[in-house]
Structure formats: structure tokens, C-alpha cells
Amino acid sequence: MGQAHRQPPWPSVLPRPVLDSTPPFPKAASTSHPPGSGRASTDSAWKADRQEGWGGHGGAMEPTAGPVRYQKLLLWDPGLESEEEEEGTAETLILDTWRPQDSSGNEVGGLPGAWARLVAALLLLAVGFSLAVRQLHTQGGSTETLGSVAPPPSGHAHHPGVYHHGAIISPAATCSHLGRELLVAGGNVVDAGVGAALCLAVVHPHATGLGAMFWGLFYNSSSGNSTALTSGPAQTLVPGLGLPSALPTLRLLHTRFGRLPWPRLLVGPTTLAQEGFLVDAPLARALAAQGTKGLCPLLCHTDGRPLGPGARAINPKLAAVLRRAALAPTPDLAGEALLGLLARDLGLEGPSAGPMPTLEPALQLPVPQGILLTTPSPSAGPELLTLLQAALHSRGPSSDPCPPLLQATVTPVSSVLATVDSSGSVLLLTSSLNSSFGSGHLSPSTGVLLSNLVAKSAPNVWACPLILHSSLDDTEADVLGLVASGTPAVAKVMTRTLLSHLAGSQTQAQQGPTESPSICGQGTLLQVAAHAEHAHVSSVPHDCCPFQGF
Description:
550 residues, alpha+beta, seven-stranded antiparallel sheet, 14 helices
């Protein structure tokens, strides 16, 4: 009878036995060990096991055809690679005592060690790639024309422009992305809208800016209240140059309804002005049409040519103004630094009176489908409600919803944006310098283009944002927001769009907002809606305005 196999006296982390002709270990000088140290008994066990051959007799281990020798533990050496290729690769394995293994060191029922590691590496690579793709979809690309729709945690997908929480749409991809970042950071639609408006003041100086006049319409789904924002009556610094009112107007709106700290909203716009922004297609077209008179060096090459698409523009003077505005504790002080610098540039002691922005209740018109909301005079809001009331009374749109434009009419240049969340809160903002690049007067101390809106200007026909709050039943309410620019017939365009929406069947209404109709002339129409706990955004033309959401 053979002796029972004895367990080797070293931990299981040493290399597994391999059949090899390499000498087992290098010879070393013998050492003596004190009695009782345990080392002597270990050496004895070692010798006994070597004599038994570990499998040369019957027992727990399988018999082998010859003596079993142990490959010494090799440290990697580049010089040994050729030798290993000739003699065969000696693997060093750390045995997993929690997994059954056969005598060759492989898992029972598994692949050989090298193949197992290869499969595991491929699996890890596939998982990492999948996580990376999901992260990119979640964050969304700021350069996408129509925004991105990330699959929500529940796994179901949405059409482009439909989001679980909130969304923003504006004429510039950079500003839509900035607004989305403010929403993700915990801000509300007012934070996102004001931040995006300040961004547009930097990257779209042809249509808006700190020298522009602003109108806004805000519906608060939490309170059910609707508020109109106005810059107050137009005033002048000097004849032909309008008094800037953007900073105190936007600051007032944020102070009343914003959630994030005011300086947080100015971080993005200030960085764009200081470090530079890329000229996009709308700005490049405006520069090509306008020329560069009065706009250099801000928007010109060194040889006087206007900047083209993709060129970088910087406005460090404007960045300095925004940094000062970020420190303003009240709306009144938000624009004082700007006004002081402008007065110095123009050789004035100071403006006779500062801007007088206001927040007041929105105009309302009850209709069978709900309540219509818009801005008061001197905007085009009252004209819009009159047109809608007449059209609804006649139960149909006018025979000529897009009448020929009057020859004497000059299309005012304006900028629009809209934000919405899934609860139904909506903010619509529209602003204008009156003409492309306003007065064309660039303030050297502030980097601000002044408007040519003056006290005797006609009513702000470019400003008539519209919100329809419709209640389908006692528990569910839909909200639709419309804002247009780029056409002198804004009120007629809004009337036609709303009538088209109301003409949709009840079934279509339950499926979500209707498709936006075409717009008269070369204008832009933004549409936002809250329906079935989702935020919806779209535009006409459909690719004119990038949107972002989450």
C-alpha cells in the first residue's frame, strides 16, 4: 500500500507543477536551522515528498510516467523571450481556491488559461465600450443641429425634441447647450432662459446684446400665475442711440423667479467673451450683408474683411462688463457699470434716467380651448389677441393668412428663445436691436453694440410671445408656447400657427403637440409644449434652431 499523499508545505500561490527538464532550483549554500524553528521539519517534508515523487505511488494524485520537477518562478526578462519560445511558455498562475480545477490548472469545464484571459479581456472591452456609448448619448453633443435624445433610464426612446425633464431651443447651438447645463445643474426654466439670453448677447451681436430691448412671458406651473417682462419705455443716450436695458431687465426676472445664484448664469457668457467663440452661419451671413463699418476689430480680420463661419471672435471688454454685472446685488446696479462706461465713451456726464424694466401680469384672453397669454403694450401682444379673437369668432383663419408685405415695412431684426419643463412651466424671451447690428456703434470701453431703438419708435411689432394654457380635464393640463421673429407680420404668423394647432383633432392633441405649419416670409418660429409629463420643442424652419434637453 502506498503512503497517503501529503500536502506540500508552501502556500497555494506558488507555480503549478510542470513537466520540464529545467533544474528545479539553483543550488545554494546549506544553512542550519535551530531546533523547533519549524524550518527543519519543513525541509524534511520537502525531501520526503521528493523521494515519493508526488504521484509515484497510489494515493490522491494521479500517477505520472516519470519524475515530477517544478519550474522555478521566473521574473520577466526581455532577454529570455527567445529562450522561452524555444523551450515552451511556462505560465505562472495564482490558483483560485473557490473554483474547481483539474490537474492542469484549468477550470473544470472551462477554457485553457490563455483563452480564458483573452475572452475575459474581450468581455471587459465590450462592457467598457457600451458604457462609453451610453455616456455620450446621455450628455448629448453640443454641435448637433437638432439636439440629442438620450434614452431615459426606463429604456424607451423618444422622437427628437421630446424630453423627460426640460428643454431649451435658441438660434445658437452654444447657447442651447449652456441652457441645458443650467437645467441639469438644478436650475429652472428662468435660469436656463436668462443664461442662454446672455450667451446670445455674446455670440449673436447682429440680433441681440446688452444694448437690446427685451420682452418676456413666463408661465409658472407651480403657482398657475403668468408674468410679462418688459424693458420699459425706450430711452436714448444720445440721438439715435438707445439706452441699454438688457442687464437690469434679465436681472429683475432672475431675482424674482430664478433658482441658481445670479453669478452662475454669467460664467458661460463671460468665458465665451473672454476666450472667444466661433462665428456661426447666422452671424456670418449678417456680416456679409452688413459689411464691417464700425464693427472692427471685434468682427473683422486684420485686413478689414468680415469674419467668416468658423472664425474665432473675442470680446474681452464685454467679458469685463459681465464680470462686474455678476457682482451686482440688485437689478438696478446690474447695468450701472455699463452705463458709466458708455457715458464716458460718449462724453456724457451720465444718462438722465436709467432703464425701468417691469414685471406685470400677462394679458389674458379666455377661449373655449383654455386661456391665451401674451405681453402688454407697447408690444404686439394686444394686436395678437385682437386677431385671434376675430379669427376664433369667425371659426376659421382669414382668407389670406400671409398677406403681401408692405413695401415701406422694414423687417426688424430680433432674437428669440424658449424653455420648457415637463411640469408645464414656460419662458419665452424675445429681444431686438431694431436693425441688424443695431446702430452700428460699437462702444470701445464695453464691447457693446448700441441699438437704434428710440423713444419715438413704432410699437415693438417684433414682440408678441404667446402661451396657451389648455385644460383637457380636471387633472391634466397642456401648455403650448409660441414665439416668432424675422418678419414684420409676427402677430399674423402667430395667429395662423395657433389656429392650425387648435384645428387639430382631439386624437392628435392627445398624441402630443401638432406639427408646426410653415411661416410667412423668412421668419423663425419656435414652439415648446408640455404634454403627458414630457417637454417638447420644435421650430420652423425645422433645422433653424438647435435644441437641447434632458
